Amino acid sequence: MGEVLVGLPPRADAHCRVLVLGSMPGSASLRGAQYYAHPRNRFWPVMGALCGFDPAASYEARFDALQRAGIGVWDVIGRCERPGSLDAAIVRGSEVPNAIGDWLASHPEVAAIALNGGKAADAFRRHVRPTLADTPPALLALPSTSPAHAAKGLPALVEAWAAITPFLRRPA
Fold first, then answer.
1. Which residues are catalytic?
2. 22-42: per-residue pLDDT in tens?
3. Domain 3-165, what fold?
4. pTM score, whole prediction
5. Using one digit for the tens of pLDDT, what is the confidence trace for 35-81?
6. Can you list the pairs that 130-138 forms with residues at least 24 positions away whose Cβ atoms lie under 8 Å?
7. How far is CA 104 from CA 18, 31, 56, 110, 142, in A?
8. What are the residue ranges spanned by the domains of the chain?
């Protein structure tokens, strides 16, 4: 069995329009207490391209830019057993989902949920969707930004992730 891991808290303000959900933070993210901390994860370059910020900026500056665009970040799984860092290594049956339904109820401006990769989409379908009484926001199943899924190049990822742009907050 793997080590029991506990995820990170949500990073979103009260005006979140797009909630990006990963599956469970990788080892680098958990060690650094920062979302998408692995240096080869393409999340920050994709978001930088879509939202117009430098993906090499400080962590807090990147999150400020996401919040200005109306993007929040969290994960479907809040606790699980996983040896190593890969989603495929998550021990099925050990997953404890985050309270996403409750969170959505208190964030009525959320218009879309962007699911970062197949594991996030699968975990959302199994753990979260059945708990939602109302019709959820638009669900966007997007390709993973993980370095474990590097077959899709950055331009193709940016093109796929552009599906979030109609939901973003526009500057005043």
1. 41
2. 999 999 999 999 999 999 999
3. Uracil-DNA Glycosylase, subunit E (3.40.470)
4. 0.94
5. 999 999 999 999 999 999 999 999 999 999 999 999 999 999 999 99
6. 131/100, 131/101, 132/101, 132/104, 133/101, 136/104, 137/19, 137/104, 137/110, 137/111, 137/112, 137/113, 138/111, 138/112, 138/113, 138/167
7. 11, 27, 30, 7, 20
8. 3-165
